[in-house]
Design a protein that fits this description.
The protein folds into three domains: 4-82, Ubiquitin-like (UB roll) (Roll); 94-215, Alpha-Beta Plaits, CATH 3.30.70; 219-575, Rossmann fold, CATH 3.40.50. It is globular and about 80 Å long. It contains 20 helices and 20 strands. The protein is an alpha/beta fold. The strands form six sheets. It has a five-stranded mixed beta sheet, with helices on both faces.
Length: 598
């Protein structure tokens, strides 16, 4: 393809036809601020109107100010991004955005990591001349969800969230309501978010440039637990957290900070630090055994994985007639809580009522999962508090703990410390499927899978399928989907009899947990760290001494000394669950929320 020639700030640039001025400028090192455009997100352009520049066409006389995100770059076009006129107009636009924006930045969840603050600094804003506190205070504040807070006093109407909810996830809960200065992001059917079809995936929080959409903040209860000498704290962290947390401290995407994370938790005052990977191995034993039972006895097929809570929410709210297809095995987070407050408490001689289990998760939906009534025993939650990766990063900074400067720690618990490579790949799309097949192959035929890395289920295609020959069970037809738009496609195929599978893995978020709604967010690109995090996950698996869940010696010990066997009576009591039709519950909850707020 022939390259075209243009000019930005007097410098010649080459570019491909069809690109915008903003794209060409960024590719050639010319910074232009923006608050609505975000990398590959296919978003309605020119809503924030801060990506201004002047352009001049030969023979067309004079310069013209344009928004660069929707202006095509042309041959011989002269672009000027650093003129006094551009700077003044950008400054005015930022002032107008701040005019009806809650400027109590010190208490905002995005304080210090706010794109609006960044742009205000870039344009040299020193004071705001406009403001209407009475107006923005009248906007919606919605805390009805256990996972997501919707605070429209901070919304700048970039509409990124609407795009990701509708076009990426296909949930289509968020929508634009009102018009003019009253425009804000509402919830479809004019309900509160806690009573809507929202699945708490948190992808909207990843793209929000300000604090209008954020995870529910739960750091304070954790600090209270740590400061209370009567409380025994047990921390767990998920596989995807260790390859993303470093980004909160300026480390390269994919940097494995597992050792530093252990040290950081001990520095905070944690009594026990363990790994969700241990119970990921446990989930494989339970879920794999469940799958083999269904294959042998003609149980409900395909069996869908159940470790992604946003996916569970999606099924309960959209396809309750297919809930029997879900595995009954709890997620690794919830299995951890149940085992910690029974098996671990018994081994450590700690009263379960004194124990508090705190999770560090890449996922916002885990907050709601921990609060489900099914996951309470003896009136106590299996998991007491869930912090997202972002929340944990903020907690460390406020406690003066700089992660990159810490020594690497290691686990020292003799009952729940070890994990396998199979558990670690839970953090990426296809990982649960691959881990399960490694063990099901062995459990069914007594022989290890020779090619342990199953390339057919790896990758980042929205849907992947494969046929795996399992000794004693025959050919298993499997599928992997990530992102709820892809998940809906598979569910519809199964529902309509258009596809025949035995086992299906679904991850709520694009890329899986590595791109969960609670992970560190990028400012220029949506999920720009996806591949680096995924490669790091696979590298941990490759370097692991043990790579199959059934070979984890502490899992064997857990079954020998406590559970008995996979899918035993005690295992079912602690590690399995049931699901509910929440289509009816949605309407009931909406009514309750309206009555409570009014």
């Amino acid at each position: 393809m022939t390259k075209l020639i243009g000019y930005i700030n007097g410098r010649q640039v080459e570019f491909d036809d069809g690109k915008t001025v903003l794209e060409v400028a960024r590719e050639n090192g010319h910074f232009i601020p923006t608050l609505c455009k975000m990398g590959e997100l296919n978003h309605a352009p020119a809503t924030c109107r801060v990506c201004l520049a002047e352009i001049e066409r030969q023979g067309n006389g004079g310069r013209k100010t344009v928004t660069t995100c929707n202006t095509p770059m042309e041959a011989n076009l002269h672009v000027y991004t650093r003129t006094q006129n551009v700077r003044e107009k950008q400054r005015l636009q930022v002032e107008l955005l701040l005019a009806d924006h809650d400027q109590d930045c010190a208490t905002c969840v995005r304080h210090g990591d706010c794109e609006l603050q960044d742009v205000a600094q870039f344009v040299g804003l020193q004071q705001t001349r406009f403001g209407n506190e009475a107006f923005y205070q009248s906007r919606t504040r919605d805390s009805s969800s256990p996972a997501i807070v919707r605070d429209m006093t901070k919304c700048i109407r970039c509409f990124r969230c609407v795009t990701v909810c509708r076009d990426v996830q296909g949930v289509d809960v968020l929508t634009v309501v009102e018009k003019g200065l009253s425009t804000e992001i509402g919830v479809r059917d004019s309900v509160f978010i806690g009573g809507s079809d929202c699945v708490s995936c948190g992808q909207c929080t990843l793209v929000c440039p300000v604090g209008a959409l954020a995870e529910v903040q739960d750091a304070e209860p954790v600090v209270d637990f740590l400061y209370d000498p009567e409380i025994f704290t047990v921390f767990q962290f998920a596989p995807a957290v260790r390859v993303a947390l470093g980004e909160e401290f300026g480390l390269a995407p994919g940097t494995n900070v597992e050792g530093e994370l252990i040290t950081a938790l001990r520095r905070l005052g944690a009594d026990v630090v363990l790994d969700t990977n241990f119970t990921a191995d446990l989930v494989i034993m339970e879920e794999g055994t469940e799958l083999m039972s269904r294959l042998k006895t003609g149980g409900r097929l395909p069996m869908f994985t159940s470790c992604s809570p946003g996916w569970i929410n999606f099924m309960e709210k959209n396809y309750p007639e297919m809930l029997e297809h879900l595995s009954t095995t709890k997620s690794p987070q919830q299995c951890f809580g149940a085992i910690a407050k029974s098996y671990l408490a018994q081994r450590m001689n700690v009263a379960p009522e004194r124990m508090r289990v705190i999770s560090i998760m890449p996922c916002t939906a885990k907050k709601g999962e921990a609060g489900r009534p099914e996951f309470y025993h003896n009136k106590q939650a299996d998991v007491d508090v869930v912090l997202t990766t972002r929340e944990f990063g903020r907690l460390l900074r406020r406690e003066g703990i700089h992660l990159p400067s810490l020594q690497k720690g290691s686990y020292d618990n003799p009952w729940m410390g070890a994990y396998t490579g199979a558990a670690e790949i839970f953090g990426t799309t296809g990982g649960v499927m691959e881990a399960a097949l490694r063990s099901v192959y062995y459990l069914a035929g007594g022989k290890e899978l020779e090619q342990i890395e199953l390339q057919a289920v790896r990758g980042l295609d929205d849907v992947r399928t494969a046929n795996i020959d399992i000794p004693g069970l025959g050919v298993a037809k499997v599928a992997v989907a990530h992102g709820l738009k892809a998940a809906r496609k598979i569910v519809e195929q199964v529902k309509n009899g258009e596809a025949e599978y035995h086992f299906v893995e679904v991850m709520t978020c694009p890329g899986g947990c590595i791109c969960g709604g609670g992970q560190p967010k990028g400012k220029k690109s949506y999920h720009s760290s996806k591949q680096a995090r995924q490669q790091a996950i696979y590298a941990i698996d490759t370097d692991a001494v043990i790579r199959q869940s059934h070979n984890n010696p502490l899992i064997k010990q857990l079954y020998d000394n406590y559970l008995g066997a996979p899918n035993s009576h005690l295992a079912h009591k602690l590690l399995h669950t049931s699901y509910v039709n929440r289509q009816r519950e949605i309407r009931h909850t909406m009514k309750e929320i309206w009555e409570e707020i009014s």
